[in-house]
Model the fold of this input.
Amino acid sequence: MQLNPIALAIPFFLVLIGGELLWARARKRSRTYRFNDAVTDLSCGISSQLIGVFFIGAQLAIYSWVYQHRLVTLPSTTLQYAVAFVAVDFLYYWWHRASHEVNFFWAAHIVHHQSEDYNLAVALRQAVLTSWTWLPFYFPLALLGVPTIVWATTQALSTLYQFWIHTELVGKVRGPLDLVLNLPSHHRVHHAINPRYLDKNYGATLIVWDRLFGTYEEELEAPVYGITKPLGTFNPLWAQVHYWVELAQLSWNAPAPLDKLRVWWKSPAWAPAGLPKPPIREVTPESRPKFDPPATGRVKLYVLFNLALIVAATFCVLWWQARLPIAAMAAVAGLSVLALSTAGALLEGRRWALPVELVRVSLMVAAAVWFTRA
Done:
């Protein structure tokens, strides 16, 4: 059995999300969660985890290879973890900043910012490719003598810390903690599309890097969440790829040959000569209505039932990934991602959702029969 911190945390994630939902209702904040948006958050996170199991080994091997060529050997485990804590947080800041200021990195990271709500479920809305984009940023850590297991553990703990700061129910915290730690009010700013909040507060556990490098912004006006060009769908597959498609189209349409390449490393606010720049507008909750098509109670119940099954399957894959056959994990991942995509389509009322869902259920039954007889 392979110890996976994320697998261990799944039950706690669900309990805390349920707790936040009850707390919001007790405070009469009924719109803290929307069923369709929360399902999409979880769908993106599940897709990221299920697909990620197929390349986590390669990523650890790459880091280990760099570590074997380290410049320094740290003499104790305590020192290794101390260096890792500070360095992971520092390097995460620069990866996160690049992920907002460079199109190539933003195309992977944008998934985490698509939700138009802000709650604990949003923390789980992760992209498939971000673990590849941040990997090179951590190579200096390997060269400084931080072993693979120490880096992986520290990175996982940093990710787990960031879960709780995705909430509107915790107000501003004054005092020393506000100066040092990344807190919910800081991270609400980071997720907002208000012009004064764009590209601010990149910290993971610590907010000190933002204060040092000029990217800190205090929460003063009500944040409006999402991305400047709304996603407008609950399909987790399109959520993962839509900005890559936009960049490819922008590159194709760029008149100058060099601009076709510049697109990939320029800022999301940049546009090739002769093409319009993305507009930056003042926003309010009233001027930016949320994508929220109605769905019947039966559809929601069906989606919730399937989501519960997929969460259980995801936990099993993450927990027993070292023992499960590749074919079994691939079948679970493929059918789960397909189910999550059709769930989004059902919530949007797409005509193609029902026939695709019937095909998906047939494939699931056939796969279950095949694995039972194998």
Remarks:
- DSSP finds 17 helices and no strands in the chain.
- The mean pLDDT is 94.
- Residues 77-101 form the longest helix (25 residues).
- The two ends are 22 Å apart (CA to CA).
